[in-house]
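Encode chain A's predicted structure.
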Amino acid sequence: MPHIRARHLAAYIQKLMGFSPIVGLLGHRQSGKTTLMSELVKNYVTMDQRSALLAAEADPDGFVARYSGLRNGFDECQLAPSLFPALKERVRVDKRPGQFILTGSVRFTSKKAIRESLTGRIINVTLHPMVLTELMQKRESKTISHLLQKGPSGIDKLFADNKIGTSVIRDAKKILNHYGETGGLPGVCFVRDSGLRSQKLSSQLETILDRDLRQIFPTTLSLAALTRVLTALAMKNGQPIEWSEISRSCRISVPTLRKLLSAFESLFLFTLLEAEGSEKKPALLFEDPGELNFLTEGRLSHLDTWTSTVLTHVRTILDVPLAGGAKYPTRFSQYRTRGGAFVPLVARAGACALGVIPMVEENPDLHVLGSARSFLRVNPGASVVCIHPYDRTELVSQNILNIPGYRAFL
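Encoded structure for chain A:
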């Protein structure tokens, strides 16, 4: 099919299957989990199919026993929690690696029965929305990983080794300029008609809020009320969470809001970013810019839309376990101070740290430079990358690099 794209995570999953009996492939609905898994397994069954779900629930041990070989794929496993004790017993007796890939649109750790059954028996990875190199079918970008691990040192050689042709730059700019509207969920972003794309997103969110959510948080709130809360959160994407403000606007208590936020995060709608610096309130980063644009009805500013595009790319690139040869997994946060310094995304891996500041101007202004220097004073040895939608590449100082989006993500 023309919209099928190879995913960078595939090679890592293949590697994991060489030493873990079960691999969990998790992520947002329509992120491409089913397509990716079907390329990696020999036997595929989905719990979305009623006959399979009923069989799994009626006799989970017998159902698992049908798949005695390697490379078996169970799709949307959270719908059949009774399967997990049977899987636990299977891999207790048979410890061969590569037996099962399990996909889920809900974090398995959000369900107690699943969490207790699979502790120590599964390695989970997250499939995020597609990024520029996947959409263009290019090799994984090394730029962001290099900047995290080594800073701007040697970046010129990296750029020289990765020369980009004029036509590729033109196509990359076009994709990035529209990414804030279309996002990177393969089940959605290839729909060119904006009306049909919105209809698909509406149906998808209805499934998430009216079915998936209620599996992990048995709320009596209506679909309209849940949508209202999610929209209010979307309007504050990347900003500190103000519980009382959202509570008033949505007419829902703060304790209920906190539970909802945890459930939304378990459904991969967004990620919580803890705060560094003198401001300590956490912020949200929505998983897919296209979904964010739909929820906010295009009301975000140009800077907010570009920020969503940039941060989605950086987090996706670095969230691949041990991306680019890193020794430690990446942790994400946000840097804010009472004095107004703001670095929207901070990535850390071991002792390495990288601050990311999206810009819609070609050159960093005084506020951007002040924010970068404030972060670097607190984090000596770290680096900051300023990413914009134009063409200018400049080493502003030893640890501050100003580069275009296509250069950062190709």
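The radius of gyration is 22 Å.
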